[in-house]
Design a protein that fits this description.
By secondary structure, this protein is an alpha+beta fold. It has a domain of about 160 residues: Electron Transport, Fmn-binding Protein, Chain A (Pnp Oxidase, Chain A), CATH 2.30.110. The strands form three sheets. The chain has a seven-stranded antiparallel β-sheet with strand order 3-2-6-9-10-5-4, with helices on both faces. Strand 9 and strand 10 form a beta hairpin. The longest helix has 29 residues. The chain is globular. About 10% of the residues have low confidence. Bound molecules: flavin mononucleotide (FMN). Flavin mononucleotide binds next to strand 3, strand 5, helix 3 and helix 4.
Length: about 260
């Protein structure tokens, strides 16, 4: 075991201080259970919708939709990302074998890709069949028509029980509309991708006209039956994730 964590459980504010009512403007309403407030806070997030693709040397390929993607470096010439992929997904096996993957920022009009890559399993269909794409420099499939893409080489992987968190070096990338006519391999493009969300420009998340598909827009755009299927799969995934997280904790925890 490389390291261990102390056994602990969340101590909610109301347990420590009792249920008190605070009527000051902006104060948390303590009638709501803290667990519900945590769930509500997380529901307020509006992450980007990413399409992750990967292909092995043996020719197996696939991908999934992910919101668990973040920039993991502030150094423009050393861009990195951190991506959380559930271990049971077919794509996890592809990334593990290939050691690399591609990330695509989707446009608001690309919700059909969410249906194909986010609600179906690569174990039963070839998700890239009929989707225009070409191999990038790492061999990862680069899907055409997206808002932008990054090619990533895995540097290390952290086992979280339910998910593997891949810390990856960004080795190539393109942001549509930023550098028309320029080769995607030129360093200036990588720098532009890495600094697109830097202090010099307003963060993409603060703009509504940036042409990027985010979770709240997706939920509003989906037909009722697709949204219901998404919820059903999420609940099923959460059940198996809960078992995996508890089992991971049991094997990584030492008593206080
Ligand atoms: C909006 C949305 C966000 C998702 N975010 C993640 C994520 O961050 N990580 C992950 O492993 N799966 C995520 N999923 C689930 C996978 O995309 C989905 O289970 C997919 O069908 C797995 O495909 P595969 O088994 O072919 O790899 C998300 C799905 C949706 C619809």
């Amino acid at each position: 075991m490389p390291w261990s964590v102390r056994k602990s459980r969340p101590v909610w504010r109301s347990e420590r201080h009792g249920q008190r009512r605070d009527n000051r403007p902006g104060a948390l309403r303590m009638e709501t259970k803290p667990e519900d407030q945590v769930a509500e806070l997380l529901r307020q997030l509006n992450p980007e919708i990413w399409l992750v693709t990967a292909a092995t040397a043996a020719g197996r390929r696939g991908g999934l939709i992910a919101t668990g993607v973040m920039s993991a470096s502030i150094v423009a010439e050393l861009p990195r990302v951190l991506v959380g992929i559930a271990c049971r997904h077919a794509t996890a096996g592809l990334i593990g074998e290939a050691g690399c993957f591609a990330l695509h920022l989707l446009r608001p009009e690309q919700t059909d890709l969410v249906h194909r890559f986010g609600l179906m399993s690569g174990r039963t269909i070839d998700k890239l069949d009929g989707i225009p794409h070409q191999p990038g420099t790492t061999g990862s499939p680069i899907v055409a028509g997206c808002r932008g893409w990054l090619e990533c080489q895995v540097e290390t992987a952290l086992d979280g029980g339910d998910r593997t968190f891949y810390l990856a070096q960004v080795v190539n990338g393109q942001l549509a509309g930023v550098t028309s006519g320029q080769s995607v391999a030129e360093p200036t493009v990588l720098e532009q991708v890495a600094t697109a969300d830097s202090a010099d420009s307003p963060p993409a998340s603060s703009r509504t006209d940036d042409g990027i598909l985010r979770l709240q827009t997706l939920l509003a755009a989906l037909p009722d039956e697709t949204r219901a299927e998404m919820r059903r799969q999420r609940e099923a995934d959460a059940e198996s994730d809960a078992r995996a997280i508890r089992s991971w904790r049991a094997s990584h925890t030492r008593d206080a």
